[in-house]
Design a protein that fits this description.
The complex is a heterodimer. Chain A is α+β, with helices and mostly antiparallel strands. In chain A, about 25% of the residues lie in helices and about 20% in strands. The two termini of chain A are about 20 Å apart. The C terminus of chain A is likely disordered. By secondary structure, chain B is of the alpha/beta class. In chain B, the strands form twelve sheets. Chain B has a six-stranded mixed sheet with strand order 27-29-28-33-26-32. Chain B starts with 12 loop residues before the first strand and ends with a strand. The relative contact order of chain B is 0.14. The mean pLDDT of chain B is about 95. The interface between A and B is large, with 34 and 38 residues.
């Protein structure tokens, strides 16, 4: 599988949130009006203007306190359910060179709820006018030979980016090391997505949508029917 | 730092205590992560489980203000289990020195204490000298009056049961930390400490660091790669500003501010130049007069002559026994004894301990000049909460300064690296570089003093020629700091000669006869005839491949990246750590880092090479001080409770608090211990999202989005006790002030068991202030903290105090 991938090593993430700010800065996204809700996690959730969010969870595992950090973002699925649901390459398409799943302003014309609901990781967020947005892999940076802003800013090596083959090798190598001291360590859905998380605990403890539900990639009947009747030309259509 | 940021990656065990590196020094975690990838253990000791703790192999909770008890227990553990590096301790530290009979320790007090003045007579702690005037030693560490056995006796009381009772740390956690860290005493292993204000901002701040330094010396961890005592500085140029005498008690390069009794240059140099009669002691400070005279020549140029003591009389003197620290200045300001105040690049209305007192003090001023990037709580204090602008007489002037990237110059980071920065964008609007503002201010003052003025000579005679084309020139200042030859000078012994006007190549060439200048001897070697060393960007590592990168920037002293490195080798000059070695003696010379002096190794203790020197060249007697008779509050560290604490009685001794700690007596200085109105231990800290008082970060939308409000963190148990819900606004109060904040109810704080009782602790970030965000509802946690501090440094005790939190 060619294209690019991320490797996010949560065992090295200290939740400095440099990635969260770098994302806003590169995309020139406005700040949300927030309050302290009794947690460091802010904004409360991803939104139309927040593509990257570090999630904070305090859990006790086997009597030991853990503060788990999960730098959440679009996983850039190899077979993106959102793209299939939209079924309009002028709105949602996959960049051939990188594998980035990209949304355009044309998402405004779609059923935003259907797109959002189709995501097994609960990522896309609509604006009031129905346009949907999410992480774009910093495609403009990547096409110009730069790292995504979140990766560039990470001080510890928790965020990594590169050619998929090398990233997968890096992830597997790191998993083997972490497994020695952490038997529960695992990679999350490495074969289905381009953003591969390494976690040291049960992924559900980090975030409800850390992993896709087991049936997430089964194509719904509606999507299958749509595909069946889609004109062949549109499969290769690019904006 | 004795070492530097990259070097953290060489460590086998990193203890983070008194700091929260993941949140406040996030880039340092690059090197922590690197060390951990190579198998290093990370220990986090903190009252609160932090983002640092979340990455640690071992987390140990500890009540704020009990670090000496915690670390003292480790000293006992190391000594009881003989885990120290015997050769190192015997050869390089003053453990073998014999302490005089007048030294004693009883009921929590060292000998020589005078309760009237709250001061110690330090002469009672003197070493015994032999007939040649050299300290008597027992290298076998068997003499009962040896520092080593006195240390053992002193800390024999610090058993884990008692330590646990004081700190609240479970005994099992104590033992786990002790065992893991003490393992670095093994030859070839290195442990490091990363600390910050969590250790220093206490009435026992200096002794906290001393305790850790003793541990590091016992384990042979000073001078080696991956070791050292490493202060994480809170701002990118704190190290530089300290080196250049930001503090009242020093001149640049850690020379002393003269006392009134130092009536002449000869008296001053005589008082502060240490004299050793030991031919094997380098006693580097014996060069003191060369540095002080060169500095005076730098300040006053041609006006400084031998006949007028090089202008020594023009330098301000401080009264004997009097202190002029931040706490003292605001105290006298509060009492109406200060007319004018430059608040330069700071925000005392939020950053001061007892910030309410500082705000009130500013109302007593005639004028204030606020030099800063933006208006802040200090410049606008007169219209802040509780102020009536109509009754505040202080006239405030705002001088907008440009931001660091808009000017050229150097910063010196925690690792002592002086790094040159070029100018990025030009200063915005009317803002100007600090250097520009200072130059113009000085020029105007000089002009005014030419006409008249009280004691005009110091200003009139000040050399003030750092401008090019009417603008401040940072290169001219940097060269002045390095220093020049002021006449042709020959050094026959070194077979060198220099011409008038040349830059001095290193402090070894500075002289006390007025033929050289140097604004700061420690920086002599930074800007030489070879160019601006700080601007170098060489990417090549040194021969030992431990990340020294000697051609990248420049570090003091003389580009030595790891100081005290003569202690990183055995007596033959061979490194303790064969893999990550710092320096090595080839038989002819030292290779690796710039050695702490080029003398050959000692060879042996019985028959040392007469050409050699003891390892710790900055100490009078050449040995690192496990016994430190120069401190104001005792030669050994001792656990005392904070000025405000939850205990009636110190469980360690009869002396509750540091007997030398300063207290102030204005009505704004209330202190409450064991007062039911203030039952909880409080502490303050920073968060990664904000910078210091938040002046630069609170107006930044992306940062205020992540951390929008001042908060108080508390345990679930305390929240239940007080009926407080997570996320609700509560009132926090102390004997000095109060503020509203948002409760974060968390598993990351747990009640402590102290002497059989439950003690709750809470914590606040101090990076907020009423000026921004625009709600005006977020205040500084320093409204709660007390104005007291360490007797050696007068750093305030903001990290442990008593407070309350309650529902609104």
């Amino acid at each position: 599988m060619p294209g690019k991938s991320f490797f996010i090593d949560t065992t090295l993430c200290m939740a400095c949130r440099g990635c969260q700010v770098a994302c806003k800065q590169w995309h020139d996204l406005p700040a949300e009006k927030t309050v302290n809700r009794g947690t460091y996690q802010n904004p409360a959730d991803l939104s139309f203007v927040t593509y990257k969010l570090v999630r904070f969870e305090e859990v006790v595992v086997e009597g030991k306190l853990k503060w788990l950090f999960f730098p959440d973002q679009c996983r850039h699925c190899l077979e993106p359910p959102c793209q299939m649901t939209a079924d309009d390459p002028k709105a949602i398409f996959t960049d051939a060179a990188t594998g980035a799943v990209l949304y355009t302003a044309n998402t405004k014309n779609m059923d935003a709820k259907a797109v959002v609901d189709s995501c097994p990781y609960d990522i896309p967020r609509p604006s009031k006018d129905g346009t949907v947005a999410k992480c774009d892999m910093c495609i403009d940076r990547v096409e110009n030979g730069l790292l995504p802003a979140c990766v560039k800013t990470c001080p510890t090596g928790a965020m990594n980016f590169g050619n998929r083959k090398e990233i997968l090798a890096m992830a597997k190598k790191r998993l083997a090391v972490v497994k020695k001291t952490n038997r529960k360590a695992k990679l999350l859905d490495p074969d289905d997505i381009r953003v591969i998380f390494l976690v040291a605990e049960d992924p559900k403890l980090y975030h409800k949508f850390a992993v896709a539900s087991s049936t997430a990639f089964d194509i719904s009947r509606a999507v299958a029917l749509k595909r069946l009747f889609r004109p062949l030309t549109r499969l290769t259509d690019r904006l | 730092m004795t070492n530097h940021w990259i070097d953290i990656g060489n460590s086998d065990c990193i203890m983070i205590s008194g700091s929260n590196a993941a949140e406040n020094h996030p880039i340092s975690f690059k090197y922590v992560a690197e060390a951990m990838r190579k198998g290093a253990k990370l220990i986090s000791v903190d009252p609160r489980f932090t983002r640092t703790s979340s990455k640690a192999d071992i987390y140990a909770p500890m009540r704020s203000g009990t670090d000496i008890a915690f670390l003292g227990g480790m000293i006992k553990y190391i000594l009881d289990n003989e885990l120290y590096n015997k050769e190192y301790v015997s050869a390089y530290t003053n453990a073998p020195f014999i302490v005089g009979e007048e030294f004693s320790f009883k009921n929590g007090l060292f000998s020589g204490y005078d309760s009237k003045s709250s001061k110690y007579d330090k002469s009672k702690w003197a070493f015994e000298m032999d007939s040649n005037g050299v300290p008597k030693m027992d290298r076998n560490l068997k003499n009962p009056r040896s520092v080593f056995l006195l240390l053992k006796e002193h800390f024999s009381r610090y058993n884990t049961k008692l330590v646990s009772d004081i700190t609240g740390t479970p005994e099992a956690d104590l033992k786990n930390v002790y065992k893991t860290y003490a393992a670095t005493g093994e030859t070839g292993k290195a442990g490091t400490i990363m600390y910050a204000m969590g250790w220093t901002q206490h009435t026992v701040g200096t002794q906290n660091i001393r305790t850790m330094a003793i541990i590091q010396l016992l384990l042979g961890n000073i001078g080696v790669a991956g070791g050292g005592v490493n202060a994480l500085r809170g701002e990118s140029n704190v190290q530089g500003s300290t080196d250049h005498c930001l503090l009242w008690h020093i001149w640049p390069g850690y020379l002393k501010t003269p006392r009134a009794s130092n009536v002449s240059l000869a008296a001053y140099n005589g008082k502060w130049t240490p004299k050793s009669k030991d031919p094997l002691s380098a006693n580097w400070w014996q060069n003191y007069p060369k540095y002080s005279v060169s500095m005076l020549k730098s300040f006053f140029g041609d006006k400084a002559t031998k006949a007028n003591d090089f202008g020594y009389d023009w330098m301000p003197k401080v009264d004997e026994g009097k202190t002029y620290s931040w706490l003292d200045l605001f105290d006298v300001m509060y009492k109406g004894k200060v007319k004018g105040f430059f608040a330069w690049g700071q925000n005392p209305a939020c950053s001061s301990a007892n910030a309410g007192k500082s705000r009130k003090a500013m109302t007593k001023l005639d004028w204030m000049v606020n030099v800063n990037l933006f208006d802040n709580e200090t410049g606008s204090f007169w219209r802040g909460p509780g102020m009536n602008p109509a009754t505040v007489k202080t006239e405030v002037f705002m001088l907008p300064a440009c931001v660091s990237v808009e000017k050229e110059g150097s910063i010196t980071n925690s690792g002592r690296w002086m790094q040159w920065r070029y100018q990025g964008p030009k200063p915005l609007g009317e803002s100007r570089a600090d250097g520009d503002i200072i130059m113009e201010l000085g020029s105007k003052l000089k002009k005014l003093y030419e006409k008249s003025g009280t004691l005009p000579d110091p200003i009139r005679n000040l050399k003030w020629d750092y401008m090019t084309d009417g603008k401040y020139d940072s290169h001219k200042v940097a060269k002045e700091i390095n220093g020049y030859f002021l006449k042709d000078v020959d050094f026959p012994a070194k077979k060198k000669n220099f011409k008038k006007g040349q830059l001095v190549p290193s402090f070894a060439y500075l002289k006390d006869d007025g033929s050289t200048s140097s604004g700061n001897w420690l920086y002599c070697n930074s800007y030489t005839e070879k160019g601006n060393m700080a601007a170098r960007r060489g990417q090549e590592d040194a021969v030992n491949k431990i990340g020294l990168y000697p051609d990248f920037s420049w570090c003091w002293p003389v580009n030595r990246r790891i100081i005290y490195n003569r202690a990183s080798v055995d007596l033959k000059g061979q490194p303790w750590d064969k893999k990550d070695w710092v320096v090595r003696w080839t038989g002819e010379k030292w290779i690796g880092d710039v050695p702490d002096g080029g003398w050959p190794p000692l060879g042996s203790l019985e028959n040392p090479n007469p050409k050699s020197k003891w390892a710790f060249i900055m100490r009078k007697h050449g040995h690192a001080q496990i016994f430190g008779p120069g401190r104001a509050d005792g030669p050994f560290p001792e656990h005392y409770e904070p000025l405000e604490c939850p205990l009636e009685k110190n469980l360690m001794s009869k002396q509750r608090m540091n007997p030398s700690a300063p207290v102030y007596d204005t009505e704004a200085d209330a202190y409450k211990t064991c007062d039911p109105r203030y039952p909880f231990v409080g502490t303050t800290y920073r968060v990664v999202e904000h910078w210091q008082t938040g002046l630069m970060t609170r107006p930044q939308p992306w940062l205020i989005e992540m951390q929008p409000q001042v908060f108080v963190e508390m345990s679930e148990e305390l929240a239940k006790l007080k009926g407080i819900k997570n996320g609700e606004r509560v009132l926090a109060s102390s004997a000095r002030g109060s503020l509203k904040c948002t409760a974060i109810v968390t598993k990351r704080f747990k009640p402590f068991k102290i002497g059989g009782n439950v003690v709750h602790q809470v914590g606040f970030p101090w990076c907020f202030g009423w000026r921004w965000p625009e709600s005006g509802a977020e205040e500084s946690a320093n409204l709660l903290t007390p104005a007291t501090g360490d007797p050696n440094t007068r750093i305030p005790e903001t990290k442990a105090f008593m407070c309350n939190v309650s529902k609104l």
